[in-house]
Design brief:
By secondary structure, the chain is α+β, with helices and mostly antiparallel strands. The chain is built from four helices and four strands. Strands 1-2-4-3 form a four-stranded antiparallel sheet, covered by helices on one side.
Length: 117
């Protein structure tokens, strides 16, 4: 629900116009009670993607979709989710992709758990 639009965005805006080898890495890790999911791509970067999209009069909606879903989950489960996007750069300062991170608590009750109690 949260990760799909991030991966779709990485493909559509980061990798579609990339020359050479392209990759997306999805990583899950946990520390104490926090689950972290990171999605990393080696695409053209957000700045170049935005410039390409300006010429096409295209507006990406994936960020707003993710924020709406995070807000809904926060309200439903009374939890805090954190979402951040970072630009990646090569050693020579050129855009080298994007890193998106979502952090959420582990062990939240599901809707069915609420109805069973």
């Amino acid at each position: 629900m949260l990760i799909q639009p991030i991966i779709e965005n990485a493909i559509k805006h980061g990798l579609e116009h990339k020359r050479g080898e392209a990759f997306i890495t999805v990583n899950f890790s946990s520390e104490n009670t926090i689950l972290t999911c990171t999605v990393t791509d080696n695409g053209i970067g957000r700045e170049q993607s935005e410039q390409r999209n300006k010429s096409k009069s295209y507006k990406s909606v994936s960020s707003s979709i993710i924020k709406e879903r995070i807000q809904a989950l926060s309200i439903i489960y009374n939890i805090q989710l954190h979402y951040a996007t970072s630009d990646l750069y090569s050693e020579d300062g050129k855009p080298a992709g994007t890193l998106v991170s979502i952090q959420m608590p582990i062990g939240i009750k599901t809707m069915s758990d609420h109805f069973q109690n």
